[in-house]
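Discussion board: Methods & Data

I've been asked by a reviewer to show the raw model output for two of the constructs in my manuscript, not just the figures. I'm not sure how much to include, so I'm pasting the format here to get opinions. Each protein appears as its amino acid sequence followed by a line of discrete structure tokens. Is this the kind of thing reviewers expect to see in a supplement, or should I convert it first? Here is construct A:
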Amino acid sequence: MIRKLLKAVGAEHDRALRRMLAVLVAGAVLQGIAFALLVPILKALFGSDPGSVWPWVYLLLGVTAAYSVAYYVSMRLGVDVGSALSKSLHQRLGDTVSTLPLGWFGAERVGQLGQLATKSVMDIMGVPAHLLRPLVTTVVTPLTVVLAMYLFDWRLAIALTVMVPLIVAVYRWSVTLSAKADAGRAESRSVTGGRVVEFAQLQPVLRVFGRGESDGLLDDALRTDHAASRRVLAATVPGLVGLSVAVQTTFTVVIVLGVYLVLDRGLEVATLLAVLVLAARFTEPIAELAILGSTLKSATGALDRVIALLDEPVLPEPLTPKELSGNEIRFEKVEFGYGDSSVLREVTFTIPEGTTTALVGPSGSGKTTIGRLIARFWDVNEGRILLGGVDIRSLAGADLMSRISVVFQDVYLFEDTIEENIRLGRPGATDTEVRAAADAARVTEIVDRLPDGWSTRVGEAGASLSGGERQRVSIARAILKNAPIVILDEATAALDPENEQAVQEALTTLTADRTVLVIAHRLHTVMRADQILFLDNGFIVEHGTHPELIASKGRYAGFWAQRDRARTWSLT
């Protein structure tokens, strides 16, 4: 655990933690010495000259005073290190999350990150403040006692030494027994956390369908979490019992051997009584380990999960970033897949600077993946993506993202005001620039009818606005960013006619004189594109303008005819 803790705290707090460990070890050794001094004190009291006990008493008082100082210092250091560790871990987690590939973030990560940033960090924070001292004591103090026993009776000392591997083996067995169950509980809690957030966010949908007070997925997650907690408890009990039995067996062996030595080998009764007291001091800290076992496992599991996130591979940044000289986008034999599933195969195309390219194709053909690869949500498996003639992997991440605006179909707004959600596109923008972007995206007409105007808070994820209104705020944000490359991913797919017209007008402003990639199912939105790429099963199977592709009577023409017929459908 200590090695994992040193890895988690990072170089910033490494020295403070090591200093605390040194003080803890010194305190544990002093405690062991204090226990050992009980032997000569008891031998003197039961011997022929009880007055000879005073030098040993004075020495015990000195060791006890030194131990008290070490204990006080370790407690102060534990609180300080624990507090600093909490702050450091949150910062390190935040820094790591900000450098992970954007494709890493999925719905299941909400619960995981929530658990890491709250419970896991709190569990780790408690290690230096509350757990390190008893952990070090349960290891160092008994070892000190065993070494001290060799000074008084080597035979009893050997008996204790022989029993140590048994105690260690039983403890390792108990840890192994419950580790898998504990990992399962952590996973179920992450899922449950995500389901709770989902349950809160989807209340409108659930209530419409009469499920406002019940959600099968959340209920299942809660039941799974309850079952996982029961498995942890069931796996922990045998370990606790086993360790207690091993400790008591050790003490029993020392008693039996001591009695034998007194009866047949001339061991003094006073020495035996003193050594038994010392043996009790040996077993007492180890017995505490059984009580600490569950807490230690939870803290160790939290450390493993935090370290796993800190070790997640980030998108590599170039040592010497290259400069861009244009905004042309070119794919060269790009291949990409999620895990073992291939999504794009030998994809090659060019989007000339200042032109609009439309991506069309059936669902699941890889259209959205192409848009996200341009924004470097992930790195390609094969081939390369060039921006202005430069491989995007050779560009600084901040430089790449400063040149791209993305408007997604599913818009997320922060729980802040409309103005601040727009300003996110360029935090340093003036109020005049924010208002101009809002005018261009037709957000001003939304603001004018709200009682708090620009100070209106949009609610969690923008819940107080309609889908079309959220989309207009998103487009205003993109207009304010003023990036030369725009990626539109199904930006009008789910809008009503009125909002779609407003959003289309805003998009016209956004895409003027820019390099644009449009991903759409509604084909009338791509008719005026400079080129259309038809994607199917990961391949570019057709490309050209709308009239050219219609005239060729290929896949695109069939796709267009099918969508055109769908416009005449009606319910009867």
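Construct B, same format:
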Amino acid sequence: MQHKLTSSVNLFLLVVVFIALVFVNNQLLSSFRLDLTESQVYSLSQGSKEVLKDIDEPINLYFFFSDKASKNMTSLRNYANRVESLLSEYETFANGKLKLHVLDPQAFSEQEDQADQFGLTAANIGAAGEAIYMGLAATNALDEQKTIAFFDPQKESFLEYEISKLIYQLSEPEPVNITLITDLAIKGGQNPMTGQVDPPWTFLTQLEQLYNVEQLGSDTIEVPKNTDVLLLIHPKGYSDELLFSIDQYALSGGKVLAFLDAHNESDQMAMMAGPIPGGGNSSNLEPLLSAWGVKFDNENVLLDAMAGLDIRTQNGGVTRHFGFVGLTTEQLDRDDVVTSNLEVINGASFGVFSQVEGAESNWLPLIQSTQNADLMDVTTYAMTQDPEELAKAYQTENEAYVLALRISGQAQSAFDIAPEGAEQPEIISSTNNLNVVLVGDTDMLADRFWVQQSNFFGQTIFTPFANNGDFITNAAENLGGSDALISIRSRGTFSRSFNKVDELTVIAEQKFREQEQILQLQLEETEQQLLQLQNQQVEGGALVISPEQQLAIDEFMQKKITIRKSLRDVRHQLDKDIESLGNWLKLINIALAPLCLVLLLVLIRGIFRTKPRKMAVLSKEAAVL
């Protein structure tokens, strides 16, 4: 009876302790998190926390998810839980400045009407075509609102960035004014080559979502007074008045981001005109670059054998184009905030930079080519349509070239006197605070090099496959004075690869190709010998085969079958190795890991049961004494 009473008391005490621990966890430890994932995907980055610190007025978040209508949609529900969990993290770290509301917009409900008013997407993917909502709306104290129409599971790697950007836009920071000077048709319009209407370039759409962007042409003569960041794209043919205004803007502490090009391949009008001798389709920002201590080679185009991208040829094949390059982490500066978290930058016909002897400015390369690089004359490159011809002309001296850089510090003015017609008569002759970022390619801004468009329930979804857009936005944010979103955007941008599987694939392909060549030669020899035997004919066309010849034919046929089987076996072995790896992983995750956990719990239980017995023995000994 006493034993049953003791067990009941122990059970009651366990329940009380459990409730107390839950209460302590929810009330006192809710702000503490332990994220053991490699990429910290369940934690807010420092950039998101900085965005939350800058919130002045309360912001309401409304997460609409059709919980009831998506009952049998497991993958979508899992992603919805992921979104809601991350939104809860935002609410926790905002210290009361964010209020999260989770709503289920069932059919014909007030919540559904509210979702429609916010303009969220109703995806008809439920049972019997029932509408599914999974979007976010946010409002601030001034009744301004921003929305994420639908959380696309394919863009999970950008989830934190999209939410932080929405909060950033509602927190009313001081707007950054970007003045964009270019003659390229980046706003879209009718394509002269296809006759169709092209949409605006995606990078411009992204910039306009975050900043105030004013676009001007090369015919302007002065940088606007309210410019925070001056963005130049493919500068050429600038008047002396405009060059002087840019020079004085930079020397007075202004921020400049310039995309130059040795051979612009995205200017439709220039491409229709054909190659222009002497680099007529090249950028030219002299004499400013010389005054800043930089030389841009606009007469030669970079060829890179290691970084060359694979393109599809006219006959349907695939070949490597040495002028179209994909630069990875090894070619990007990992210490600069603009490029530290980027993975891939794609571009075409880069021009290269070099430092002027005796330059006073600080020189910091951001992007470089690989050591397997060469330079080709612009005119020759423009007239060479076949990538294989570029490969034949390629020669390397094992030198890496600078493709993008940051220059800062001291610089001199490029002008001794103000040009006639300049509105600023007084000249700033020098500065110690130069802040300029230069990039040797403009084609990298075109959509075809970094983003893919797709239709998602009537909405155009832009899915990046390279970080070109991140690069220009990072640079604009950095030069504009805000680094908060930079560390968020590139967190886990790309899916983790199965390195071991990739390694097995490469090894198997090497083995397959080596053995394939040997077996293919044997197969050709066997078929040739069979053909010689079968061509031994007599008059009348009858085939006369001796028993020895028939035996040889049978042996060759068997050998042919054996060779073909060997070729298949090499390819099948790849699948066996990968299946074996998968089976071991399943065994570890399903059986060994739970077994180890059980053994650990048994060991802990044994330790705790041993201690009371030892205490009881000690108590008895003390009583005897």
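Answer (T.O., handling editor elsewhere):
This is acceptable in a supplement if you add a one-line summary per construct. For B, something like: The longest helix spans residues 547-624.
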